[in-house]
Amino acid sequence: MSSNAGELRHVMLGSIFKPEVPLGAARGTPITCHTSATGKGKLHGSPECRSLRSAASVNQFDIPFGEAVERLCTNCRWALSTDSPILPLGAAVNDVDSLTIWLDRDPEDENDIKAERDAAIALSTGDYPPPTNDVGDADEEDSEAGHDEEWERYDRARDLRYGRLSHWRRLHSYLMRSNQAVADYPFLAPWAEGLQSRLTAVLDAERRAFADLVQPARLLEAAAVRVLPTPQFSGDPGFAGLGAEAEKTFRRAWYEWSRRATWSWQRLEDHDLSVYTVVSDAFGRRRKGKPEAHTAFRRLTADWIRHAREEAARPATASWQLVAVRTPALSRTRHSEPERDPLTLWEASVIATYQVAFNRKAATTALLVPHLVAEQLLACASHDMPVQRLTLDGSALPAETLLEQWDHEGLTHS
Questions:
Q1: pLDDT digits (tens, 9 = 90+) for 101-144
Q2: Residue 356: enclosing H or E segment and its boundaries?
Q3: Cβ contacts of residue 16 below 8 Å, gap of 6+?
Q4: 53-57 long-range contacts, Cβ below 8 Å, gap at least 24?
Q5: Where is this region: Disordered (predicted)?
Q6: Chain-centre distance of CA 360, in angstroms?
Q7: Is 366 helix (H, G, I), strand (E, B) or coil?
Q8: How far apart are CA 185 and CA 195, in angstroms?
Q9: 35 has which bridge partners?
Q10: How many helices (H) and strands (E) does the chain have?
Q11: Distance separating alpha carbons of residues 350 and 347, to the nearest angstrom
Q12: DSSP letter string over 203-219?
């Protein structure tokens, strides 16, 4: 196996390592520095540094990293062997120090607060404006302008909600990466503690802001869709135009609608378009019987929605359970590609909405959720997102204590 000992990485040590950062065993690692003949001032990674241009002569010498760190030039890069212990420590320090970019930000102004409130009001009725009655010709122009304004309002509300979700998930991922850095280098813990504690407060505020834009009733109804029996095809006269494709279209419509509804934060009615698209695709360019088919499928969808809401309202499904979950971080990607969120919108919404305790060091969350929601969470548990009930033994301990005792790493999933 080839060695990387001869390869070099050029690193801006002075901008990564502040004097207060613990160095552990890397403190004794020698680094090559350059300084003016006087030996005073900053230590540089290259004799070509602009700060040394006026020096009569430049000295080069090796010095233990721990002795140099307080004098490192913040503009220089040091050539380090790829097997240097300073490199992985620097990456860990970066993962902790990056938390600072989310701290001490300006509070929201009055306009931001108003926008949040309006978004919550709009989204409480659905993701899209409710249908309006037709108006007369005299009011048509005003109605069209008002219609456009209302659609823009809902567009802003959806964008704001997704922005809150993205920011909360990004903060959570930064916290998890800093946890891993501390796990790899436990001596960083005292330095990281303050930053992590402050970020946790920011993270919780962002979670609450996101949860304010989500309707818990819709999350419960989505979970109810998952347990509905697959509907049986029947020869509705409205399907006549589909001919032999009627049953296939019926099954595909149910699949598309139930799949989208189960993993969404939207109203069940907001998934009607998926059924409309399936029916339209089945007809292609044919028009005969198409309006009747759309009408028949609208009736079907309304029945599915009614059954889901009846299931969600059943007393047995309304009982609450305490569940623990370890939420995965955003997946790192190569180059400039955006990070991928392994959570569905439903999963993220449930975790943000029903949180009752959070263990910062383990990045685990306790949720108090309706029975149906608990069942769906347990069904989607995985190695990356372990889920478990916390009160199987009838324990009366607080959620915080139960969460701290939870051994998520001991779980195995098929």
A1: 998 878 888 899 999 999 999 999 999 998 776 545 555 655 66
A2: strand 355-359
A3: 90, 93, 94, 97
A4: none
A5: 123-149
A6: 16
A7: strand
A8: 16
A9: 59
A10: 13, 8
A11: 5
A12: HHHHHHHHHTTS-HHHH
The pLDDT tens digits for 285-326 are 888 989 999 999 999 999 999 999 999 998 875 589 999 999
Looking at residue 331, its pLDDT comes to: 87
Q: Which two tokens stand for residue 50?
A: 């602009």
Neighbours of 393 (CB within 10 A): 7
At residue 320, what is the residue type? W
Residue carrying the six token digits 């080839």: 2
At residue 203, the pLDDT reads 96
Helix spans in 109-188 (H):
110-123, 140-184
What radius of gyration do the chain's Cα atoms show? Answer: 29
* In the block, residue with structure tokens 């005003």: 142
Segments in the chain below pLDDT 50: 1-3, 135, 412-414
C-alpha–C-alpha distance, residues 310 and 312, integer Å: 5
Instruction: Give the predicted TM-score (pTM) of the model.
Output: 0.87
Supply the pLDDT for residue 54.
Answer: 82
